[in-house]
Amino acid sequence: MKKLLLYSRSNCHLCEAMEEELSPFIAAKCIEVKRILIDNNERFVQLYGHRVPVLMMGEQLVCEYFLDTDILQRILQDSSAV
């Protein structure tokens, strides 16, 4: 199972939208997404600030602000070939 990190803020409509858009994609691709709220973590606030939501797979940036399913699919295909 592929593990993704979703860096987000509370009360963020873009974050909620990305999480919702990931739901059917998660089920279809057997991936797991861990949501990390950055509000109370100064390091994450400095790293991601107003760029949230930020979707990562390991150290690789998948997308920010809006879900880019084309990029996500490409990354998942590339990582399964390894």
Tags for this model:
82 residues; 44% helix; globular; 3 helices; 4 strands; Glutaredoxin; alpha+beta
Describe, in short, the structure shown.
With 82 residues, the protein is α+β, with helices and mostly antiparallel strands. It has three helices and four strands, in the order βαβαββα. The mean pLDDT is 90.
Kindly describe this structure:
By secondary structure, this protein is α+β, with helices and mostly antiparallel strands. It has a single domain, classed as Glutaredoxin (3-Layer(aba) Sandwich), CATH 3.40.30. It is built from 3 helices and 4 strands; from the N terminus they run E-H-E-H-E-E-H. Strands 2-1-3-4 form a 4-stranded mixed beta sheet, with helices on one face. A hairpin with a 2-residue loop joins strand 3 and strand 4 (about 60-65). The chain starts with a strand and ends with a helix.
